Amino acid sequence: MTVESTAARKPRRSSGTKRAAGAASAAKAPAAKAAATAQNAEPQLVQLLTPEGERVSAADNPDAAEFLSFVEDITTEDLRGLYRDMVLTRRFDGEATALQRQGELGLWASLLGQEAAQIGSGRALRDDDYVFPTYREHGVAWCRGVDPTNLLGMFRGVNHGGWDPNTNNFHLYTIVIGSQTLHATGYAMGVAKDGADSAVIAYFGDGASSQGDVAEAFTFSAVYNSPVVFFCQNNQWAISEPTERQMRVPLYQRAQGFGFPGVRVDGNDVLACLAVTRWALARARAGEGPTLVEAFTYRMGAHTTSDDPTKYRRDEETQAWEAKDPILRLKTYLLASGGADEAFFESLEAESEALGKRVREVVRAMPDPDTMAIFENVYADGHALVDEERAQFAAYLASFEAEEGH
Amino acid sequence: MTVESTAARKPRRSSGTKRAAGAASAAKAPAAKAAATAQNAEPQLVQLLTPEGERVSAADNPDAAEFLSFVEDITTEDLRGLYRDMVLTRRFDGEATALQRQGELGLWASLLGQEAAQIGSGRALRDDDYVFPTYREHGVAWCRGVDPTNLLGMFRGVNHGGWDPNTNNFHLYTIVIGSQTLHATGYAMGVAKDGADSAVIAYFGDGASSQGDVAEAFTFSAVYNSPVVFFCQNNQWAISEPTERQMRVPLYQRAQGFGFPGVRVDGNDVLACLAVTRWALARARAGEGPTLVEAFTYRMGAHTTSDDPTKYRRDEETQAWEAKDPILRLKTYLLASGGADEAFFESLEAESEALGKRVREVVRAMPDPDTMAIFENVYADGHALVDEERAQFAAYLASFEAEEGH
Amino acid sequence: MAVEKMSIAKALNESLRKALEQDPKVLIMGEDVGKLGGVFRITDGLQKDFGEERVIDTPLAESGIVGTAIGLALRGYRPVVEIQFDGFVFPAYDQIVTQLAKMHARALGKVKMPVVVRIPYAGGIGAVEHHSESPETLFAHVPGLKVVSPSNASDAYWMLQQAILSDDPVIFFEPKRRYWDKGEVDTEAIPGELHKARVTREGSDITLAAYGPMVKVCMEAAAAAAEEGKSVEVVDLRSMSPIDFDGLQVSVEKTRRLVVVHEAPVFLGTGAEIAARITERCFYHLEAPVLRVGGFHAPYPPARLEDEYLPGLDRVLDAVDRSLAY
Amino acid sequence: MAVEKMSIAKALNESLRKALEQDPKVLIMGEDVGKLGGVFRITDGLQKDFGEERVIDTPLAESGIVGTAIGLALRGYRPVVEIQFDGFVFPAYDQIVTQLAKMHARALGKVKMPVVVRIPYAGGIGAVEHHSESPETLFAHVPGLKVVSPSNASDAYWMLQQAILSDDPVIFFEPKRRYWDKGEVDTEAIPGELHKARVTREGSDITLAAYGPMVKVCMEAAAAAAEEGKSVEVVDLRSMSPIDFDGLQVSVEKTRRLVVVHEAPVFLGTGAEIAARITERCFYHLEAPVLRVGGFHAPYPPARLEDEYLPGLDRVLDAVDRSLAY
Ligand SMILES: Cc1ncc(C[n+]2csc(CCOP(=O)(O)OP(=O)(O)O)c2C)c(N)n1
Ligand SMILES: Cc1ncc(C[n+]2csc(CCOP(=O)(O)OP(=O)(O)O)c2C)c(N)n1
Ligand SMILES: [Mg+2]
Ligand SMILES: [Mg+2]
């Protein structure tokens, strides 16, 4: 599935009318709308597929209409592709959770419930765009073509980041909350300097919105008009803290005070996430600067496998969100609309099984790093102290071997 | 002059209708207005006294009308008092600049041009309110009753802060940009915990608005609904950087995205600054949480005596602002309205002279601290290393005396 | 209760509870300290019993946490701040170094800063990046701060009491991998001074100095060395600022050899200062240079390597042997 | 030009100019670096000549400056960041320590971090609070960073060139009170290694080791001591991470005595590491413990006290005498 074709890298801003494929010329209109939306205390939620699995038409919802143009090109096959992405991502995620329970991983941060936000936004990207994730963007990584097993290294404890960011334009997971929003902004400043028409997307959470770094990223990107999309997955919780501990009004409204639009989208609606992200990326490519997208979703599982959410939230809340499941609603739609048949779902189930099996096998075979890796890559150009300590430690280790050799 | 009587400390929020003296019951209305104002791209400037020295009536300007009620009680005598404050503050400031040139001070940060913002806001405070200044709030210090010569110690280099913050509820000057906004927020959290109906005001600059700490202060105060007023003197410059390097839209709009109102006031209009600050303080006392006030003003002088603004800004700009001088406009009004006669201005001139003389004398007589003060107040409860180093250094110094004694 | 066996985690929890009970100005602040009781459950049950006004879940912003704690201290409160993990203290570093540490001096003593910053620190729990670090140098070097770390339940209980009672800012490093180690706590004992070292095992051939998580390793090393006929004295420093050099000097003048052990990188670790100062104080007593065992000049490695990275029994014994070989 | 006499400030300016000329990926970022040319005029004229896209006035937010510089480096740029004064680096500390220092290792070497953070540091200019500090320990202790400080114009020129060419993050401390000291700069010379110490005066009785602003004081002390018949060797360390212990060791093995001088507080200052490591390396050579002269464990004092606070000629000579007395 190619939701978005990969445009060749072209000089940016050379033409104000240049648009990414699928990004209709309405980039301006939703911006105005978003600004208007931001003024209401009651948040407007951009939704294109209801929890009941029904598509929203322009007639139903004039707000949504503005974004519908951004997914006009989406075929039934594309929808099946999005569905497949979500199902496989969830399967991978579940497998990782299981592997943690079996002791194969030290920790796992599940994306359960956030598949639509991640696949929708991830599939809006072009290859030449660049992604700055948190530690939970397994679905986005999937869209970028990062082998999911690569994500597991840091959770197994064999590395701090197991992929080359530049292979798939997908930066390493960042654990210090909010830091990556500044990296994304700087990267976007560089994209603009290069005259490229790529865009950058920075993921962050509702909790992260409180960090000063995120506000500074808003300021820098606004001042330099950088081509960056700030994509917040508001999953309602920052570990045990509900969003009321982080903000008093809906987050998407914050953007306006920094001088760029913010939109709240149904984060469990993959189509709406795709549309809104495409719109925001189109703004970035068109030289219109940053956009804040707040994907309103829910963390169905624990914060990580170390967490016990029963300590702080009610089952009813989680159950209420089950009804809004992102995968289920697309399945309902595909079934009702005849967009997919049983054979599709069966073959996808088989593909899931295969993925799960592969993940298990790869993880279990993942070797521990060599002890001396401690000293590797501390510096690119070397450092006398590292050399000294490496040599001393090697000699120390060798002394045991020598003794054992006796 | 008592613009605001000092109410006894009473439990806060025990009555929703409790209001500070002079703060009419309209606290709600301007809040709504401010929110509405914040939605316009074109900033609305609350102005009650024009640069030409004419008072704005409710009929002239319905926006201003909402704030007029907050200065209904201001008598002609009060206006003369505000005028006097501004004149003496400017005189003190000029004297300090001169003292720096004479080598008596190492540095001075002049408030020239910002007198109305500081006196207007400073006179809106009650004694039990608490102020967190930057390094330029000499006018606010004046309103709090801090002896102006106390401000000079840190600029002379004899201390880092020469007054007891709790004597006048005026915190020490803070040099690290933005830090004090968090201290103010924490203090305000404490005020709320105590059930007091005091308010807290945090001063900061346009440049400071970019610091993550300021955004975090907005978040904390919004989440805890703390009784704090964020008072930004947007003097158009952060050293050599114009506001466009810090923000893309007017600052007062930022508040709304954090869930509280923001207002832009003519920072060269002492009456408007008084009214708007009273309104914001009334909101704080009434348990309505934080407010952002952006006082739109201008730094007429250099950033500090170390700075040379001819490197980065045009004379014409500064000249244009001269026409908006905060002191001149009140003088024009007082003269035209018969609110003050020549005798008033003459006696004020004499008072200014006397202040200048006293400042000169006090500064010149200001002794250098004792060398051993280096080791004082590092800890409240003592520290073995400080004791050791103090003793060693004393012995070292004594060794010279011994030698000299020979 | 008077004497009870409990874990370090429980001792800290009890100590916080006592502080909340005894002084209405004491507040607990941090991420997830409320209903969850903190990710390590150190504040478990406290919000339930003392309410949201005293045990405060904060926004996810460390600078904001410490900055508002400073403001609360200025208002007369005594905030006890929890930083969730060692690696997340850095967003608050500016507030700690430029404000918290200096406020008392800046105000010429007119204001006090009774703020405790609790930081679960150091490694050994198999965690991901940023969750295993030992940044004590970065605080101990800063005038105006005090820095301590308990190694056992009794110290955890009493040192936290004393830190909260102190009118100075105290960075309180909790050895997270020892949270579940148990020991006896006498909640009615009169504690020793907060910043004094303690000899936890007497010996005559060599001194091992450590604090926090490494005290246990040193005790084990001393036991192992004893089997080889070496008499090792172990000093639990307990405080990294100030360091009890007088106490340590007494030990070193007796044993004439010193090895300092910590998890933090050796380069500019606290062992550097200890080596420099003890060498100056005991120049004619030392039979060997002060040796140091600690982390390498490399980021804390992935979990699967931490056993090799962390100073363990063998590396400590190796240093003991090297020292004795002089 | 080839050899020219210029101030350190001018040498830095010329060095930045050359870097901008030679590599279009080099960027200058910071507060007031544009039209104003920085508060110390180190970037004077550069924006005029290279434009706003290369010499970038940033918002007033240090974390933002370093954080976006990291992003720019990921995009292939080589940002040279100016922090306005030493005391204002702390808001950026988190980005420096948790991101800049670790990115290369985190990425298993797949990305590089060629970012230079220039910091005018140390005292002696009669400034207000936060404008006179020496925080080098707080960076040198952190694996992944390199830390250097030139003491003269030639080093200022060349070391900055080398720092910009380095693929590692370099914290570049500029001795602000020496900005106007002049020296000869050969802009065509082949420079020595960035992290090697240099003997700036030979001597046989004792070694003085320093860097940045204190080299001059040590040179003066050596001259004064010579008048009293003492032969003092002075080593300009130039680099605080790594420290050229090999070079220093050669000197100490010759003189058998060492005094380390820096403005930073002695407690956990770089002198601590030098004392510890040199003592270990030269245990049998040292006639006296390594002595340290530096700042006290107190906030940098108000300007009127800084002459007493700062290590000056007398304090250095006192330490020389104390060392020689052993
Ligand atoms: C600076 C920092 N402080 C604290 C933490 C510990 N921590 C890890 S995840 C998390 C909550 C993050 O919440 P949110 O931003 O909403 O993202 P989510 O986990 O919900 O995806 C916290 C507090 C951290 N990683 N970094
Ligand atoms: C964290 C920090 N960075 C840099 C500085 C240096 N500095 C002092 S004042 C100033 C400009 C402040 O501008 P603004 O906030 O607009 O206040 P103003 O000086 O105009 O009153 C700067 C950059 C500082 N004091 N603190
Ligand atoms: Mg969340
Ligand atoms: Mg300003």
From TrEMBL, chains A, B:
* GO BP term, example: branched-chain amino acid catabolic process
- The yes or no answer to whether the keyword Protein transport is present is no
Q: Name one GO molecular function term.
A: magnesium ion binding
Q: Which domain of life is it from?
A: Bacteria
What Pfam families does the record point to? E1_dh
- Oxidoreductase as UniProt keyword: yes
Which cofactors are named for this entry? thiamine diphosphate
Q: Where is the composition biased (Low complexity)?
A: 17-38
Q: Which residues form the Dehydrogenase E1 component domain?
A: 84-354
Question: Which residue intervals make up region (Disordered)?
Answer: 1-40
Tell me which UniProt keywords the record has, alphabetically: Oxidoreductase, Pyruvate, Thiamine pyrophosphate
| Matches recorded under PANTHER family | 2-OXOISOVALERATE DEHYDROGENASE SUBUNIT ALPHA, MITOCHONDRIAL
Protein name in UniProt: Pyruvate dehydrogenase
From TrEMBL, chains C, D:
Q: Please verify whether the record's keywords include Oxidoreductase.
A: yes
Q: Which domain of life is it from?
A: Bacteria
Domain Transketolase-like pyrimidine-binding: residue ranges: 6-181
InterPro entries per UniProt: THDP-binding, Transketo_C/PFOR_II, Transketolase-like_Pyr-bd, Transketolase_C
Tell me which cofactor or cofactors this protein depends on.
Answer: thiamine diphosphate
- Report the Pfam families cross-referenced here: Transket_pyr, Transketolase_C
| UniProt keywords, alphabetically | Oxidoreductase, Thiamine pyrophosphate
GO molecular function per UniProt = magnesium ion binding; oxidoreductase activity
Q: Which SUPFAM superfamilies match?
A: Thiamin diphosphate-binding fold (THDP-binding), TK C-terminal domain-like
- Which CDD domains does the record match to this protein? TPP_PYR_E1-PDHc-beta_like
- The coiled-coil regions, if any, are none
What name has this protein been given in UniProt? 2-oxoisovalerate dehydrogenase
Origin organism is Streptomyces roseus
